[in-house]
Amino acid sequence: MAILETLFYLFVYPGVIFLFVYSTFCEWFDRKLYARLQNRIGPAYTGRAGILQPVADFFKLLFKEDIVPEKADRIIFSSLPVIGLATVITAGLYLPLWNFELTRSGFNSFQGDIIVVLYLLSLPTLIFFLAGWHSTNFFSTIGGVRVLTMLFGYEVPLFLAVLSPAVVADSWRLAEIADFYQKFPFLLFFQVIGFFVAVISLQAKLERTPFDIPHAETEIVGGTFTEYSGKKFAFFRLMTDIELVVGSGLIATVFMAGFSNGIFASFFKFVLKTLIVISILSLIRATFSRIRVDQMVGFAWKYLTPLAVLQLLISIIVKGIIQ
Amino acid sequence: MRRIKIPIGPQHPALKEPISLRMTIEGELIKDADIKLGYNHRGIEKLAESKTFIQNIYLMERICGICSHSHTTCYVQGVETLCELEVPRRGLYLRALVCELERIHSHCLWLGVAAHEAGFDSLFMYTWRDREVVMDLLETISGNRVHYAINTIGGVRRDINIAQKERILEGIQFLKKRIEYYTNLGTTEPTFVARIAGVGVLSKEKTMSLCAVGPTLRASGVASDIRKDDPYAAYSEIPFEICTADTCDVLGRVVVRVKEVIESIKIIEYIIRNLPDGEIKVKAPRKVKEGEVVSRYEAPRGENIHYIKSNGTDKPERLKVRAPTLANYPATIEMLKNCFIADIPLIFAAIDPCICCAERFVEIIDKRKGSSEILRMSDIKKRYTNKEIKRDAVWPF
């Protein structure tokens, strides 16, 4: 039974199937909201209100011609999308959706799993860089370099912001952090700055406007993905969608008291809270224009990082007071 | 750092028409730029020589989709000067009315494109939505959204009535509010301003020595506008101001354009309220007197020049078009130097390029000899006019 449970966990909920279905739904939600904010209709034809459009896009891309550049390293070029997809799905397993029982720690709930999730969410960035570099195309190379340049901007504030609730909760285990804030919800008010820092950093990590610098269409064509097509590009797209779900799930866990008490309650809380985060991300996407890579790094170090440090300081003081 | 050359175009998402910008870059900085034209040559000038003066109005309209009225007005004004025709005042006012509506539509379109180049798609969607209002107004006046076909030699082809006047006033009132909002948005939204302020700087002296035209020139603080400098249509009677900015960058070019839209709205209001009565056109002769003329016109993109030479028949002997984009290319190269890669689409879009308007030569490559030469129309003409051309040949010949 234990094996069956683990397999169910890996492949059904919250593993591959759930993440696929929910991430396509989130992409639809994001696209629809973004379109409505721009006074457009958005996806409208596939399924009710276009809800199946991302799924249709995915399967359509699977059947498209798949080209590998002549000079590119075939093995690395082809394996990167799969590795990337595997990384973000693995990160998704650590979200405390099923494993909220504090007494029972398993392979996906242990002290320090917050670090594992953050680490697994950092890997896609490196994969984007490698993808750009191995495409042997000028535009891809520039895109890849921009990916790395941006990494140095947003990674530090993201880590600081996500870890400061953990400091107050005195735990490095996601389920315990969520449980702590379930008991003391008022302490979340001290984490407001960190929440916004984390959301903005997540926006940068997901490379969405105003941080869509590595694949700025009007400047460097497809950027990192210029040479990717067909199946490989479909996997990259799915990977970004799942990253969106996992990233917002992580923020919902540490800043919004997680998702606890029963399978169904936790499912509904997860959907509601991630959709709130995704709405904020869409709103940011619709209100700003793309900035330059130097401006992005400047912004991250001038404003985001000091704010994240301030948040950490507040957390330490709060922790001192409640003890 | 190693210098590499990257090609922007002829096929690139930032370009709406084919042109090749070759950038020499060092990291993210542009060290040198080069523009290569000739991907979109259509032979319009040659075609114009085989058509009558009346037919040419509709050919000139098709030089450009966005400034279609600019090219026809420039052309018919030239022909009218050759014929010594006196166009009725109402005709001139209606011509100016369509001119200004076209300017609004062109600038709204440009603002959307510029926002899209900067990755600000929301502004793009909103400006293009509101541009529909002015497109509808043009449709009520002329029956068409793009090629208005309202000009004819000796005046305009369609009159407007009271109901149309009211619709125009209503439409521009709505547009005025929206444009004021976009002016505010485009000049204060922090991320957008961060992208356009101080980008593509070109000093006043440089702009003048490189012969830039239109909003590019005015954004560098030079108050030059053909409507004021060399008034045509009804502009000598209409009060308006030349819009300038002194920041000399892309932000200045945005400011100049949005100010011009507001100025255009005022001009339209004036025209509608002071539209003189009378005829809208006079009858024009089929054959145009011998002579040559240069006609100037302030298109939304800048000064448009047509040179027309007539030999006394009903067809022009030579028709030369100098579209504003061509005059702005030297300035663009200067602006691109020492900017970031991220600024290329914005700087290039800031001149509002209309690439097919400016294609005036062909490159002939001899594959066997391996030689190539760039030929202007006059060169080709010199070389081939002595040969007999079968004009009335029946297909297949």
Overview of this protein structure:
The complex is a heterodimer of chains A (323) and B (397). With 323 residues, chain A is an all-alpha fold. Chain A has one domain. In chain A, 70% of the residues lie in helices and 0% in strands. Chain A is built from twelve helices and no strands. Chain A is globular and about 60 Å long. With 397 residues, chain B is an alpha+beta fold. Chain B has a domain at 55-319: Cytochrome-c3 Hydrogenase, chain B (Orthogonal Bundle), CATH 1.10.645.10. Helices cover 46% and strands 16% of the residues of chain B. Chain B contains 14 helices and ten strands. Chain B has helices at 44-49, 53-61, 68-83, 89-117, 121-142, 162-188, 190-196, 204-209, 214-218, 226-229, 250-273, 324-336, 344-350, 377-384; strands at 3-8, 20-26, 29-36, 151-152, 155-156, 291-299, 302-310, 316-322, 361-366, 371-376. The longest helix of chain B has 29 residues, at 89-117. Chain B is globular. The A-B interface holds A 37-40, 138-139, 142, 209-210, 212-213, 216-221, 286-295 and B 4, 6, 12-14, 28, 115-123, 125-126, 129, 189, 191-192, 194-195, 340-345.
H/E element sequence of chain A: HHHHHHHHHHHH
Find the count of extended strands of chain A (DSSP E, 2+ residues). Answer: 0
Question: Helix fraction of chain B?
Answer: 40-55%
Secondary structure tally, helices of chain A: 12
Residue ranges of chain A: pLDDT <50 for 5 or more in a row? none
**Which overall shape of chain A is indicated by the principal axes computed on the Cα atoms?**
globular
Number of domains of chain A: 1
Instruction: Tell the overall outline of chain B.
Output: globular
- The assigned structural class of chain A equals mainly alpha
The H/E string of chain B reads EEEHHHHHEEHHHHHHEEEHHEEH
Structural class of chain B: alpha+beta
Which chains make the largest contact?
A-B, 27 and 29 residues
- Beta content of chain B: 15-25%
Question: How would you write the strand order of the largest sheet of chain B?
Answer: 1-2-3
Overall helicity of chain A:
55-70%
Give the N-terminus to C-terminus distance of chain A in angstroms: 42 Å
* CATH second-level architecture of the domain at 55-319 in chain B: Orthogonal Bundle
Name the assembly state.
heterodimer
Q: Approximately how much beta-strand content do the residues of chain A carry?
A: under 5%
Count of separate DSSP helical elements of chain B: 14
Radius of gyration of chain B: 22 Å
